[in-house]
Amino acid sequence: MKTVLVTGGDGQLALCIKSEAKSTEGVKFIFKNSSELDITSKEKLDTFFSDNIIDYCINCAAYTAVDKAEDNIEKAFKINSEAVRNLAEICKKNKTVLIHISTDFVFDGNKKEAYKENDIPNPQSVYGKSKLKGEKEIISVLKEYFIIRTSWLYSEYGNNFMKTMLRLGNENSNLNVVEDQKGSPTYARDLAVLILKIIDNQSNKFGIYHYSNQGKTSWYGFAKEIFRLSNIHIDLKPISTKDYPTPAIRPRFSVLDTTKIQKTFSNTIPKWNESLEKAIKTYLSK
What we know:
Elements: E1 2-7, H1 12-20, E2 27-32, H2 42-51, E3 56-59, H3 73-94, E4 97-103, H4 126-141, E5 146-150, E6 153-154, H5 161-171, E7 174-178, E8 182-183, E9 186-187, H6 188-200, E10 207-211, E11 217-218, H7 219-229, E12 235-239, H8 259-264, H9 272-284
Parallel strand pairs: 1-2, 1-3, 3-4, 4-5, 5-10, 6-9, 7-12
Antiparallel strand pairs: 8-11
């Protein structure tokens, strides 16, 4: 039986993995949040791996407060970079396969077409820089790894754009949402299924991959579809980035090219609006 450690165990992706893993046979999953396993501590990681034989480590742990990271630089790099190196080193020592989750924020957003895995990163925010540093730490330590960059992650769990819009839609009669930032919303449950497929197949097709749902939209378009699918009637208006300034710079265009991951794992990725409909139905039926 394979044993899989999932860090960031109370985050939305980890919770989606936990939900999908119920139908996975022959695999034992261990979910740990930061209070249960501090990945910034080499000693605690070493002790945990000494007590448990871990075949795969899915690193869902991250400092994801994009705007707060601009003021909490040390904390962002400690979790998104230093801790990632700790995991890479412990995985190397124990022959554990590391599956690490990264982000579209490693790109500057100046491209006009979907970003491929070999495009040169140029992060514009502390969050993006810390996540890119984490990727580089893995590459410097391990020869074999999976780094999966994703974008605009949402689900029925945790804090995310879908849940925020549903809350705001029920609290307000009108809302302004940024229209000039384009990307691909990603249902965390779809990503969870892909990750479990990699483990189930015991794949050795290591490397960097991009994963997001198919198609692209703006935050305004994303919000509009959320309200349509949930039958919330609200006066929704598009605004530009300059009308909604934030401490951290967001990529204006961060659509990810998923050709590589689809071909490598024979995986069909759903369209973003189809997955959004499933997510909203699941969330509202709770």
